[in-house]
Amino acid sequence: MMTNARQTPCEETTTERPHLALLIQDGQRRQIVPLSRRYYSIGHDRHNDIRLTSPGVFCHHASLVWLGDHYFIQTSGSQPSDGGENPSDSRLSINGQPLVAGHLSPGDSISFGWGVRARLVAVRSAPVPMPPAPKPWSALSKARQEQRGQTSCGLIEFFPDLILRVDSQGDILEVQPSVDPDLGRLICSPGQSVTDCFETSFVVNLFSYGQRASETRSLQTFEAAITLDSQRLFCEVRLVPAGPGEHIAIIRNITERKRLEQALLADAIHDSLTGLLNRSAFMAKAAQAIALKKSSAAYNFAVLFVDLDNFKVVNDSLGHLVGDQLLIEIARKFKTGLRPCDTVARLGGDEFAILLHDIPSGAIALELAHQVQQSLAMPLRLGDREVLSSASIGIAYSDGDYDSVEAILHHADVAMYRAKAAGRSQYALFDPTLDR
Known about the structure:
Blueprint: E1 20-26, E2 29-35, E3 39-43, E4 50-51, E5 62-66, E6 71-75, H1 87-90, E7 93-94, E8 97-98, E9 101-104, E10 109-113, E11 116-122, H2 139-151, E12 162-166, E13 172-176, H3 194-197, H4 200-216, E14 220-228, E15 231-241, E16 247-253, H5 255-269, H6 279-295, E17 302-308, H7 311-318, H8 320-335, E18 343-348, E19 351-356, H9 362-376, E20 380-382, E21 385-387, E22 391-397, H10 405-421, E23 427-429
Parallel strand pairs: 3-4, 22-23
Antiparallel strand pairs: 1-2, 1-11, 3-5, 5-6, 6-9, 7-8, 7-10, 10-11, 12-13, 12-16, 14-15, 15-16, 17-19, 17-22, 18-19, 20-21
Helix pairs in contact: 7-8
């Protein structure tokens, strides 16, 4: 059964926030927004607390939340740990540094998008009174709750979910602990703020979706991760509107389900033998690179098509098991020396592809191809045998006007055949004259 609602705290226990405001330049419009609440939604949509009119701002662009001694800003819906938005996607920056989320201090400059700048400043205005805490449930409501608990044999006490009743300021009014052995380690008590119980990104989502639930009077759901004693738990959170400015948060541990989903996803995009990305995953990555090139002329990339020389001879003479081991070892060599942003994939058989992101010139791709050739020149020890390998590499640079992954991959393939015709263990950069 849920614990009793907290009593109204004494004034002495109220944490007083410094008097801060956002000075916003939004196109031709300026506005000053005093910050007196714990949470603000920022975006283009009229339902946001702070509305920005620039078309470069998302409908719900960012969330601003007070965490006890500072403000924290986060791109709406971003969960970096779950592969959320990239800094380049969010167009949010603090003091010129692109980011997804970060802390704010007075004097910090914020960019929300095209033509929208803001600065967090300290102001001398009188303190803005905190809204009164919601009243506890009436004695009648409590009596009914107790009666329901008795007649239902206290079934709610055995729910695996953690259930919280939270007000608009993020203060916890009531708690029903979880019987889940992992989630049950999370201690939340009436009178605490959600900022005392959860990590920052989780708190931002609680405020954001909780506000949406209260405004729309509808169920809102999100998934997020929390850390308990160095253990990462994935949770599904359902937010149900309750009293005025209040909502019920139903938090369920879905870690095992998420692990299964991630394993299935990994199997779907990776080559089962080498562990590299497969062809479909590479095509998706390359399509993103082409889209980036179209949106920014300064961005360039390169595709390297790698075909092993005489691999069939190894398979036929030494057997498929040795051939498979050779592919595994070569895949490891390909990953060595690449940046985290680069991509290497097995397209099928003895064909591989490497995608180099954000490079200043094709010379970088030529240098990497040279490094790959040197690496493959070293003999590999496979069981009791030493096996020599080599590869022919074709390179296509993004200075061409590419509309599809197939087009740039075709050009890399053409250049690869030119390298193979030159005597194998060579590399070549695509030249438009080769494709005539």
